[in-house]
Amino acid sequence: MTTPQQRLEEIAKQKKALADEEAQLLAASKDADLETVKKLCKQHGFTATQLRGCLATKGKKKPAAAAGAAKKPAAKKAPAAKKSKAK
Question: Are 7 and 1 in contact (CB under 8 A)?
């Protein structure tokens, strides 16, 4: 019989092997999938603006405003002072 610790180590090894296999399969199909996407974008005339919601972006994402933080109203600016012309 195996101890629970040995069984956990076996499971960890299996997870790592499966993750490695998944990464290899994804890399192998990446180019073909990209060509499919390009073909469909040309076929249907999709623009970058239309795809923006589902495309990955570089950099950090903005925090969600729906987390209870209400927007503050814009501050009102004082009217500009009138300058008199020097004679």
Answer: no
Closest by CA to 34, choosing from 56, 61, 50, is 56
Task: Tell me the pLDDT tens digit for each residue of 26-76.
Answer: 999 999 999 999 999 999 999 888 888 888 877 766 666 555 566 677 777
Distance, CA of 5 to CA of 11 (rounded, Å): 10
The residues, ordered by sequence, that sit 6+ positions from 40 with a Cβ below 8 Å of its Cβ are 46
Total domains present in the chain: 1
State what percent of residues in the chain have pLDDT above 70.
79
Taking the C-alpha atoms of residue 1 and residue 10, their distance in angstroms, rounded to an integer, is 13
Residue type for position 28: A
Q: Return the number of other C-beta atoms located less than 10 Å from residue 51's C-beta.
A: 11
Q: Which residue segment(s) compose the domain that 48 sits in?
A: 30-54
Which segments within the chain are labelled E, that is strand?
Answer: none
